[in-house]
Design goal:
- The protein is an alpha/beta fold and 724 residues long.
- It folds into 3 domains: 284 residues, Rossmann fold (3-Layer(aba) Sandwich), CATH 3.40.50.740; 194 residues, Dimethylsulfoxide Reductase, domain 2; 136 residues, Barwin-like endoglucanases (Beta Barrel), CATH 2.40.40.
- 28% of the residues lie in helices and 17% in strands.
- The strands form 9 sheets. The protein has a 7-stranded mixed beta sheet, with helices on one face. The chain has a 6-stranded mixed β-barrel with strand order 25-29-26-28-27-30. Strands 10-9-8-12 form a 4-stranded parallel beta sheet.
- A hairpin with a 2-residue loop joins strand 2 and strand 3.
- Helix 3 packs parallel to helix 18 and helix 10 packs across helix 11.
- It is globular.
- The chain binds ligand MGD (2 copies), iron/sulfur cluster and molybdenum atom.
Length: 724
């Protein structure tokens, strides 16, 4: 008997509303849900493979324990007993700091798991909590701390007549920039309405193809380009004078700092035609509404914080923040109601260097959290406070962390390495315990995480007050022994005699709660009760037109800051750099290319490679290059090359890509495996993270190393190196 159920796709962070056909208790087919008001029936090829993901023969179905280099199945009870005992021992001997947590990509769609993981760390007293967000766009929260947050939020995409994307490709990535819920349709509708799109990207991306203006820049030069745009806006007096006057500090300092970034200078440095830069600035600033947002490319290139700051500066110069009386686009649903005010919020007194100190590079806690880029160091560095145990939740450090060779040493050094994963990832293969969780259709879901990301950056998260709940749709495969991520941490806490507290609520530690009970706790005080959201199987937009932006508080003296002293000093440093070669950030005169990060549509970081349809084109990550560059180097498509940074080398397989500008190699991350598998490059790809040196070229506040715009050389190698 087939029946159809609505569900939330959790293959990626977009959370599309889908319809799942269930036959004899098994999910057999996924299509988009046309009745869903946020996604209008959209799905992508990944989401349509959920059945293949759930019933994948490679899926780990029982906990694995590594003994003498091999993994053996154990029961989840036995695994929890052993892990709890070992953790207690380590904490007793080395203190709670010896236990670290890494919550990553697949923590996001499972909010009960990430909340319980946090509660567990709180209960054992370890501050060593790391997340993949710290190696994603940590410049976002840092820049907001410097510039200030406009309480009412940004102008919405749906009403904008211009939009500027800086190194983001939301049509593919579904992650910010354009509301990431069927972004293709949203962009199409906006362009039809006459919106002018500006894209700054070294690649002619799927978004750039539709742009009014595409600045196909040298990568890594975004601070220069954005300072150049700010300079034009100021020099031509295209800025919002009233807004600057009443709400903004630092204008004179900014004006002075950006003045030397003339269009000619930007052209010489970033290889963007001066006239096109001026046109971009005029187009953007002379429109009535719209925002500039940046994505992972420039955030991973040097000075990501400065790039994010300049993005905020350009928006503020143009006054692109919601004003009193305008409708609040999203007053939230499953979190407490937010009635924005037309005013700047107080800035934190310190944005970095407080709280827990890491033992390397002077790094410490900061507004974007402890950096995962230093976690391998914390594991490797002997001495007081050394990290001995790592619990990784829905992450793959061996694939994703910068400096893979250092990560490899760290993974092998751990006394206790536990990973919660659905497959034997490159990290799982090195783990003492692999704990397989229930997958998306096997456990209840809520859309709440996509509401919280409003606080991470801006112009992200649901554009309207949308929410959906999904009950469990199917049972896990017969014979499996799976835990939801939260059950793992709850089970450990029970065994270790810990009391867990979630969202201010002490959990009942004897009678195990259900996932729904935990959702209720997470949604405590929400604008709309979860029970109400549950009534709408297709999801629902809980609109309330009466919620508008409130006036500024009487006596509020907070102002946005476009002249932050640290950021102005960095602008001066950038301007002082020689055009080629520089001691700190640009030691690259001897390198011919810059390697940039990118997303590929059919896979999600290291996920999806075990699903045949998703790897029908290639199972590796091609080194996409401009055909002119390939010819100039005497190379051919399909050639194996060695790509070398000043830190390490990887193999790459050359692929012609007219969309990539000359001087650039565009390559996806999180491929490959440990170095002994390197010659299997045609099957598993290679790990671009290996090219990054975490000890050089990093942001001293966030610890973010240079993960894009990496200077590299390439050479053809003996083609037999890659076993076919
Ligand atoms: N060089 C370079 N490095 C990068 C980037 C880059 O662009 N360039 N990008 C960075 C960014 S933005 C990020 S976010 C990080 C990502 O860093 P990570 O999150 O550490 O890496 P992923 O490859 O996404 O790992 C996800 C893991 O979760 C597993 N998984 C899949 N489904 C589930 C599930 O339902 N539950 C659980 N528990 N596990 C599941 C997958 O099998 C996989 O092993 O990488 C960063 N690293
Ligand atoms: N299909 C798919 N979707 C994904 C992922 C995936 O792996 N596959 N990963 C997910 C994750 S973890 C994240 S964080 C988001 C990221 O989402 P996005 O930030 O939108 O990521 P990308 O699509 O890689 O877009 C980044 C763009 O930056 C450009 N770029 C690289 N370096 C530079 C530079 O120095 N300057 C400028 N101006 N541009 C540069 C690249 O060419 C690329 O087009 O995507 C998520 N969505
Ligand atoms: S974009 Fe694709 S993978 Fe992401 S939620 Fe939608 S269907 Fe799933
Ligand atoms: Mo990410």
């Amino acid at each position: 008997m087939a029946e159809t159920r609505t569900a939330i796709c959790r293959f990626c962070h977009s959370f599309c509303g889908i319809k799942v056909s269930v036959e004899d208790g098994r999910a057999v087919k996924v299509v988009g849900d046309k009745e869903n008001p946020m996604y209008f029936g959209y799905t992508c090829v990944k989401g349509r493979q959920l059945p293949q993901q759930h019933y994948n023969p490679e899926r780990v179905l029982r906990p694995q324990h590594r003994v003498n280099g091999h993994h053996e199945a154990v029961t989840s009870d036995a695994a929890l007993d052993a892990i709890a005992a070992r953790l207690s021992e380590l904490i007793e001997r080395h203190g709670p700091r010896s236990v670290a947590l890494y919550t990553a990509t697949y923590s996001f769609p499972y909010p009960a798991g990430s909340a319980m993981a946090g509660a567990f760390m709180q209960a054992i007293g370890s501050p060593m909590k790391f997340s993949s967000g710290s190696i994603d766009q940590p410049g976002k929260p840092m820049a907001i701390a410097f510039h200030g947050r406009w309480n009412a939020g940004p102008q919405p995409f749906s009403e904008s007549d211009t939009w500027m994307l800086v190194g983001a490709n939301p049509v593919v990535s579904k992650w910010g920039g354009i509301p990431q819920y069927n972004p293709g349709k949203r962009l199409h509708d906006a362009l039809k309405r006459g919106m002018k799109l500006i894209v700054i990207d070294p690649r002619l991306t799927e978004c750039a193809e539709k742009a009014h203006i595409h600045l196909q820049c040298r990568p890594g030069e975004d601070p220069t380009i954005l300072a150049g745009i700010a300079n034009v806006i100021i020099a031509e007096e295209l800025y919002d004078k009233d807004f600057i006057e009443t709400e903004v500090d630092g204008f004179e300092a900014l004006k002075r700092a950006v003045a030397p970034f003339t269009p000619d200078y930007v052209e010489r440095r970033a290889d963007v035609p001066a006239a096109l830069l001026v046109e971009a600035a005029r187009t953007y600033a002379s429109a009535a509404r719209g925002m500039t947002t940046a994505g992972t490319g420039p955030n991973m290139a040097p000075r990501g914080t400065l790039t994010e700051y300049m993005v905020l500066v350009i928006n503020t110069l143009c006054g692109r923040w919601l004003r009193e009386g305008e409708k609040m686009p999203n007053p939230f649903v499953l979190i407490p109601e937010r009635r924005g005010k037309a005013q700047a919020e107080p800035k934190p007194e310190t944005a970095w260097g407080y709280g827990e100190k890491l033992r390397v590079r002077g790094l410490g806690d900061n507004v974007s959290g402890l950096t995962a880029a230093a976690l391998a160091d914390e594991i490797l560095l002997e001495g007081d406070g050394q990290v001995k145990a790592l619990i990784s939740v829905g992450g793959n450090p061996m694939a994703a962390w910068p400096d893979q060779l250092k990560t490899y040493e760290a993974m092998k050094k751990l006394d206790l390495n536990v990973t919660l994963d659905i497959k034997m990832s490159a990290t799982a293969k090195l783990a003492d315990y692999v704990i397989p969780p229930r997958l998306g259709l096997e456990a209840p879901a809520i859309t709440q995480p996509n509401e919280f990301i409003w606080f991470y950056g801006f112009s992200t998260g649901f554009p309207e007050p949308y929410a959906m709940y999904q009950p469990q749709i199917v049972e896990p495969p017969a014979g499996s022994d799976l835990l939801e991520e939260w059950e793992f941490f709850y089970g450990l806490a029970q065994r270790m005699g810990l009391q867990l507290t979630l969202n201010g609520v002490d959990l009942e530690m004897l009678n195990k709660p259900t996932t729904d009970d935990i959702f209720e706790i997470l949604c405590k005080g929400s604008r709309i009760p979860l029970s109400e959201v549950k009534k709408y199987p297709h999801g629902h937009i809980f609109d309330d037109p009466s919620i508008t932006v409130l006036p500024k508080d009487g006596g509020c003296e907070e102002r946005l800051d476009v002249g932050n002293v640290h950021m102005m000093a960095e602008l001066d440093e950038v301007r002082a750099e020689a055009l080629t070669g520089h001691a700190g950030y640009r030691p690259e005169a001897r390198f011919t290319h810059r390697l940039v990060s990118r997303r590929m549509n059919d896979v999600y970081n290291s996920s999806g490679r075990d699903i045949p349809v998703l790897v029908r084109n290639h199972s590796y990550n091609p080194a996409f290059m401009n055909p002119g560059d390939i010819a100039a180097l005497g190379l051919h498509a399909g050639d194996v090359v060695r790509i070398s940074s000043d830190h390490a080398s990887i193999l790459g397989i050359v692929e012609e890509a007219p969309d990539v500008r000359s001087g650039v190699i565009s390559m996806a991350h999180s491929f490959g495996d440990a170095p002994e598998h390197d010659n299997r490059v045609f099957f598993i790809g290679s790990n671009t993270g290996r090219l990054t040196n975490v000890e050089k070229d990093y942001d001293p506040r966030t610890g973010m190393p240079r993960m894009s715009a990496i200077p590299v050389n390439l050479e053809r190698v003996d083609q037999t190196i890659a076993a076919q």
